[in-house]
Amino acid sequence: FPLATLSVNVLGALIAGFVVTAFFSRGLMPGALQLFILVGFLGGFTTFSAFSVESLRLLQSGEIFMAMANILLNVVGSLLAVMLGAYVAAKFMVD
Prior knowledge:
Layout (H helix, E strand, L loop, with lengths): L2 H22 L6 H15 L2 H13 L3 H29 L3
Helix pairs in contact: 1-2, 1-4, 3-4
């Protein structure tokens, strides 16, 4: 099971949720820096292409349950992580 890719994707989503809520939505960073952090750094850190290839390989090898688990955990786990990051930033960041 591609646990390393899942971990990186969920962690990247957690960081993205925090950073977007703590800094971007408050106008504390210029647009170019926001793009660099979100698309450049976090986009390079997370691994959507690796996730896609690993899911395809699992499907091709007949491991349907593992492939579906991988897809579900990456998508749902990342969505929950980005929401958690946003929540933590909103709750604990002082204006």
